[in-house]
Amino acid sequence: MSEANIEGNAGSASPAEPRHLRRALIIWAVLSVIGIAVWLALAQFILPAAASGLDSSDNFTFLVLTVLAVPVSLFPSESKTGPRRMVSPYSPHQRCRSGG
Questions:
Q1: 8: left (phi over 0), alpha (psi -120 to 50) or beta
Q2: Most buried residue, 1, 30, 58, 68, by CB count within 10 Å?
Q3: Is the pLDDT at 87 greater than 70, yes or no?
Q4: What single string gives the DSSP state of each residue in 14-37?
């Protein structure tokens, strides 16, 4: 048995060990806030001027959806093994299963 189990510290992390999940969430939150602030500052130069009430509601909707998409876009998109490769079911490298 290890000393950690003998002393009653079963499974607890040592205080010196960094908390990676907390660090990643803090970095993600900070980058999200920065991305949202940048978009809010630049949106007035990117979006066209509203000519009617409907245009202004369209611009507002676009602004809200973009702000909501910034944190989602900061999530990692690949696993540790790399990107997944899509294989077509009609790939010429696969054999025909119909016995013919």
A1: left
A2: 58
A3: no
A4: PTTS--HHHHHHHHHHHHHHHHHH
